[in-house]
Amino acid sequence: MLNKKTLFYLLILIIVSFFLRFYKVGQLPSGVLPDEASFGYNAYSILKTGKDEYGVSFPLIFKAFGDQKLPAYVYATVPSIKLFGLNNFSIRLPSVIAGVLIVLAIFFLLLGLGFTIELSFIGALIASTSQWSIILSRFTFESNLGLLFFMIGILLSLISSKKNKLLPAILAGFFFGLTWYSYISYRLITPLIVLIFLIIYMRKNKFINKKGVILLIAFIMTISPLLLSSFANQGQARLKQAGLNANLGTVLEINENRTFCTHYLPKVVCYASANKILFNSRSLFYRYITTFSPNYLFMTGDKNEKYINVDHFGLLPIISLPFYFFGFIYLWSLFIEKRLSKNELFLVLSLIVTPFPSLFVGDPQKIRLSALLPFLIILIMYGFRHLEKYLKKHINYIIYVAVVTLLILFSLFFMINFLTVHVQKYEISYSTYVHKLMNYLGSFNKKTSIYIGSITESPILYAYVNKIDPTIFQKLAIRKQPDSIGFTHIINLGNLHVTERNIEEIYCQTIKNNWQTLYITNEDLVKIGRIKKATKIIRSENNVDTLAFVYDVKDIDKINIDCSYINENR
Question: Which residues are in the Glycosyltransferase RgtA/B/C/D-like domain (predicted)?
Fold first, then answer.
């Protein structure tokens, strides 16, 4: 049982974690990512009609953009939309709550692994204040919900292995199963981690014990509704869209290398030295090394993906870097001496396994690597505990106070940079123009034809911002055929159209139509003399960038426009 002092510190930890994730979560950033809008609008559609945007009743797979979104986050968002309406706050709230609960789960997991209350608290504080967890928790990222279920599954499995009770095993299997409904990476990670756990902790002689069998059965029963779809075409959509074979750049590089090589060497030699197996193996090795590099984890992070990374910040607080090194030294020494305990062996295998799904898709990225977070924190805490052995008690106490203080100060420094600098500097990455543009377009009556030429996801963004009745959306949405890897987008939603045609073609198409016609693009057509004026200019919040222009087609410069081909086609 935890004493009152520990409970008080846990309460402080919860408050800090909640503040870092909750503060102005709906306003900073004020924009909405296309995937966020898709999750939110599908949850809104489920709430209002019991159907998704395609008109499918309570689906287990949401087709969305053809990327086959998993259902957990959509259904988790329904209650918050019911309470607070369809907005950025509502769709991000489940991730905020998941982020706070993950911090608590890490605290109890560290306790379960034999760490002291003090070290468990510091480990949880590292999770609470890490840029990694804060970013995952402030957006509609389904990986964060998947991580919560994953953490609860591991914690309950650990409890089950220590106590002669079946309920924790049943619940562990259930929560492990929920990861399959949450995020695609767990389709591979969770079975491997379950298998590793059963072999290490739940063996009786050479076989899995009764609790392990119960856990496995509960896991299989939970995922059984998804098993068929997981191995069908729709379940493989994400892999096809983002896997190694989907990388056209690799194919082009291989072909280029072969072309140059064959000028000097026999074809068989060139083909043997430049092929998918070698290139993909090299890429995987590079990505794996990068994932665990201090530069990536503590210094730069996902520096090329501005919407999930703040300049000059890694994934974890830099103050934890020395303990990260000590953690590796500790595990390596035990491995050499063949003294790895069950807990340490589980950690080593988990560190090896959890990055793989992310690395098959592309370079390391904090969203796809979410399952790695708790194991890195455990590694850091092993380093902390290993260092403690060489220091006197009063020195350890000073280090505790210093680390806790620096973690809190570092997190505040990060938040100040994220909320006041980064969000403003890279607001284009967060689509801050979406609400202004879609609200403006929503003010026109349905007889106004609207053609959008620069925003592929505009129909779902329009529906999200203007809270379009889902029954109307389901009837009016017309989609183009899926591309070669399964992506599809809406091209017509009533009077809203996504077009690749220029404004002259739109003018000729609507010349006999007396209704108002708007054309939206990111090009300044006034400057190049193609139209007289812009009806509306959408600028960034800091007024630095012009992000969209709205033109009334009737204002086009009609000189030298020949629409005769329209009549000929008719």
Answer: 74-226
